[in-house]
Design a protein that fits this description.
heterodimer, A: 213 residues, alpha+beta, Alpha-Beta Plaits, 2 domains, nine-stranded mixed β-sheet, two-stranded antiparallel sheet, 5 helices, 36% strand, elongated, B: 666 residues, alpha/beta, Rossmann fold, Transcription Regulator spoIIAA, 4 domains, six-stranded mixed β-sheet, four-stranded parallel β-sheet, 22 helices, 13% strand, disordered C terminus, binds iron/sulfur cluster
Chain lengths: 213, 666
């Protein structure tokens, strides 16, 4: 049986990285006594996979993971059982069964949406001007880890939501998240001239392709 | 003082700049956050090393449980931030805070440090400083928390006497409640007086400490004074007030309380991701170099059922992938075979890794490990400690060479490819020949392994340097000099580096000296600790932290000679700096054991034959109330303190309390 869990990751858990999050779910499954399936071989690994790694420090309300179980179990009540074994900071939003033959979760991710809250006051109209400049640009060449790439085509949308006092201003963005073409919110913020440590970032939505075969 | 919200806001700005920020945010499963205002006493428990090591510390886990079970108290945790985090915290004005509530440590009523080893001393000072609390006990007043410390290193508390208000000597499970009760009483009395006062709650610190000093097992150093002889050794250590004990005897619990099962599950990777269940406390083997073995007597065992139940509950509440069955000597646990069989039956096939440390060098140990492991990964660890039969007699860990060879051969034959052997150099009267024998033994073991499994056979030799510890039969002996250690280590390298299937690890001689002078120091060492810390020494157990030169400068500054502490055979009538602290094993017993070692005489397991080490007369009452299997000392039947000894195998008659050794002044 294969199940897909959608969950949020908040608070202290923002500082738990991708590998540690794997471990966390493995232990949670054990605490809930789920019949987790393991790979064969010398170092058996639990069959858990995540849709898209969330950078350290980001919160999320839309993480998705896929877990294989050795046998079928009733879905009813599972959400409560599993939730009871999770640390505060992880909240299960949905659990559903998926077809055993469905493609791997990672290959289905198309784009991701982020909400960035600015913790320092900014000039709202100046921010709008910069956003427009980004959206009107044909290309934004950047280099990351020594590789040149064009950020512009990875930005699907970028807007700001102003707040009356200029505090807690928000930037909303939708970035491509396909394998080999993933936009990173920090890069967009850098182009906008916003310091990363003056923000709180939350991933609000992962768009998965509905094509299951 | 900063509020939790202010601290969290500041943290959010810096956490992504440090390694592993998950160490500093709490939020772990099974951590307990009580309502701050609903309790009278707030305790912060501190392991003054990094989170990765501290979280799994058993002592703090037990106290965390004990305190949080009380309705009127809460316990939270703190660890030493790593160097990168400390820099940023100081830069941004963030005081050290507790992980659960994010409140500054300075807000707590009581801060309890665990000091299992001496290299945590500078970190302890650093933690206090980071918390904005005066480092010296004498500089703290009513506004500051009471600072206590416990753990094995506190068997000689003197080098830390200036910084800790009260030490707990021995086991903390019961004492901690008495300490909390005493604090509550003191604060309640003053609050009655100040009922209509707008002043914040205050109390008389000195009076409270005086009351704490009357709790058995609690040592409050400010009420004692040390004087010295011309040769620099201690003349005496005496109370300066009337109502505190002359000698502080360690506390023990008569029966081990139910083991903790709600282990904290970190959200980041740590060193030991596991559930630990203490199967037994204490050790009857009497290895003469072993501090833990001497200070944790008597042996008290848990029942197989209790262990199994705790393991099951703990695994269920944590989901950890490993179970450690802890004791100083697993093979000596009376029902070890039954335990291991049942653990195997219960958890077999669940991907659970089970560890059973400290097994004796005998084939039964291999049977035990086979029952626990489906796979032979991870290597098989044994600790001969010395490589010649002569040395093994001296240290009282007697194993014939043939047993080592036969056991290791069998380990390879049964499918393990790596054997880890632990040795120590620097035991008293050790020669270069004894050291060369370590290399020879390793080669012989590997050669035997090759005969059975060919070139797959590997060997890992861990060779540490012996440090004579307080409260052990070797407390009279000197450490090896740097030259001796160097010669011995070079010899091992020469002999062993050629074979690439032998991995040799050695301890840095400087680390051993640091450990030696801290564990054997007197009150004057406190100033050296302080200066070394001021000069930047911290994380002394880490190569990134320790600064040996700073220590040397600190010694010079205070006109003290490190060699006085490390390289000096003690006079037989010397008064030790820890003379007023006792682990209930008599000095006479230790001295007699020391003399036996010089003669190469061994004492077998004291389960087979009680040697009247001092435990029974001290704890006769407890033993009488708790007769039978739980303890491994003989029963105490008569109301008088007579020890019943059944001399079966011993060559050495039991020493009665009346027989005094002429040379030792105790
Ligand atoms: S009192 Fe006897 S049996 Fe008990 S620890 Fe001491 S020597 Fe061993």
């Amino acid at each position: 049986m294969r199940i897909q869990i959608t969950f949020s990751k908040q608070g202290a858990l923002r500082y738990t990285g991708h590998l540690d999050l794997h471990k966390l779910w493995e232990r949670a499954a054990r605490r809930a006594e789920l019949p987790l399936a393991y790979s064969h071989g010398f170092h058996p690994q639990p069959k858990i996979s995540m849709a898209a790694a969330l950078p350290l420090g980001f919160a999320s309300r839309c993480e998705v993971l896929d877990m294989k179980l050795e046998r079928d179990i009733p879905l009813e009540g599972l959400r409560d059982t599993l939730q009871g074994t999770l640390p505060p900071g992880i909240q299960i939003l949905a659990i559903e069964q998926v077809d055993d033959r469905a493609p791997a979760l990672q290959t289905r991710v198309v784009s991701a949406e982020y909400e960035v809250t600015l913790t320092e006051p900014v000039d709202g109209s100046e921010l709008k001007r910069r956003i427009d400049a980004v959206m009107n640009a044909e290309s934004i060449l950047r280099s990351r880890r020594g590789k040149e790439y064009d950020l512009r085509p990875l930005i699907e949308s970028l807007t700001s939501v102003s707040s009356p006092e200029g505090r807690g201003e928000k930037i909303i963005m939708k970035l491509s998240a396909k394998e080999g073409a993933t936009g990173r919110p920090e890069e967009v913020l850098d182009v906008l001239g916003i310091a990363f440590e003056e923000t709180r970032i939350e991933r609000t939505r992962l768009n998965l392709s509905t094509n299951l075969h | 003082m900063l509020t939790p919200e202010q601290i969290e806001r500041k943290l959010d700005r810096i956490l992504l700049k440090v390694q592993k920020p998950g160490r500093y945010v709490g939020g772990e499963l099974n951590s307990i956050q009580k309502d701050w205002d609903s309790v009278q006493t707030r305790v912060a428990l501190v392991f003054p090393d990094i989170y990765d090591i501290g979280v799994s510390n058993m002592g703090l886990k037990i106290l965390y449980d004990q305190i949080n079970q009380r309705e009127d108290a809460l316990a939270e945790r703190a660890y030493a931030p790593w160097l990168d985090m400390e820099d940023l915290m100081r830069q941004h004005g963030i005081p050290l805070y507790a992980l659960e509530s994010k409140r500054p440590l300075a807000c707590f009523d009581l801060i309890g440090f665990t000091l299992p080893y001496e290299t945590l001393y500078t970190n302890t000072l650093n933690v206090l400083d980071l918390a904005g609390i005066p480092v010296r006990s004498a500089e703290r007043d009513e506004r500051h928390p009471i600072i206590i410390a416990g753990g094995h290193a506190c068997m000689n508390p003197e080098p830390m006497h200036a910084f800790i208000d009260a030490f707990v000597i021995g086991e903390g499970e019961e004492v901690i409640h008495e300490i909390i009760d005493t604090i509550q009483n003191a604060k309640r009395q003053t609050s009655k007086v100040n009922l209509n006062d707008v002043q914040p709650l205050t109390f008389d610190r000195e009076a409270l400490l005086r009351e704490l000093a009357q709790i058995p097992g609690v040592y409050v150093p400010r009420f004692y004074e040390a004087s010295y002889l011309d040769d620099g050794t201690v003349a005496r250590i005496e109370p300066t007030v009337a109502d505190v004990p002359k000698i502080i005897t360690k506390r023990i619990v008569a029966k081990l309380p139910p083991p903790p099962t709600k282990f904290i599950v970190p959200n980041v990777d740590i060193v030991h991701n596991r559930v630990s269940v203490e199967i037994m406390r204490g050790c009857t083997r009497g290895c003469r170099f072993c501090h833990a073995g001497m200070i944790t007597r008597p042996v008290r065992e848990r029942s197989v059922d209790e262990i199994l139940q705790a393991a099951e509950e703990a695994l269920k509440s944590t989901g950890f992938e490993e179970l450690a069955l802890l004791s100083l000597s697993s093979s000596d646990y009376t029902h070890v075979l039954e335990l291991v069989t049942k653990v195997g039956e219960k958890f077999g096939g669940t991907h659970l890794k089970v560890s059973l440390p400290s097994l004796r060098i005998e084939s039964v140990s291999i049977d035990l490990m086979e029952r626990l492991k489906d796979r032979r990964s991870g290597g098989f660890t044994l600790a001969p400690e010395a490589a010649t039969e002569r040395m093994r007699r001296i240290i009282n860990k007697f194993i014939p060479d043939e047993d080592i060879i036969n056991t290791t051969r069998e380990i390879y034959r049964r499918g393990w490819t790596t054997i880890k052997l632990y040795f120590m150099i620097g035991h008293p009267s050790e020669t270069l020949e004894d050291v060369k024998a370590i290399a020879d033994l390793c080669k012989r073991v590997l050669a035997e392994g090759r005969k059975v499994i060919g070139w797959k056979a590997k060997l890992h030799a861990g060779v540490s340097t012996f440090v004579p510890k307080s409260q052990t039969p070797f407390q009279w002996v000197s450490c090896d000099t740097p030259e001796q250690i160097k010669a011995k280590q070079e010899l091992l390298k020469r002999e062993l580096y050629r074979d690439k299937n032998i991995k040799l690890s050695l301890t840095d001689a400087e680390d051993s000296f640091l450990e030696a002078w801290l564990s054997r120091g007197d009150r004057r060492m406190a100033e050296v600790v302080y200066s070394a810390w001021k000069k930047g020494s911290k994380f002394d157990a880490w190569k990134e932290g320790k600064k040996y030169d700073a220590w040397m400068e600190a010694f010079a500054e205070h006109g003290l000679d490190p060699l006085f502490y490390t390289h000096r055979q003690r006079r037989t009538d010397e008064v030790f700096p820890w003379e007023h602290i006792t682990a209930a094993v008599r000095k006479n017993f230790l001295f007699q054991d020391f003399r036996m070692s010089l003669e190469g005489e061994i004492r077998v397991d004291c389960r087979l034959n009680c040697y009247a080490c001092g435990i029974l007369p001290t704890f006769a009452g407890l033993r009488r109330e708790n007769p039978g299997e739980g303890w491994k000392c003989p029963d105490v039947k008569s109301p008088s303190l007579k020890v019943i000894s059944n001399s079966v195998i011993s060559k050495q008659p039991a020493q009665s309390d009346a027989e005094e050794l002429p040379v030792v002044g105790d």
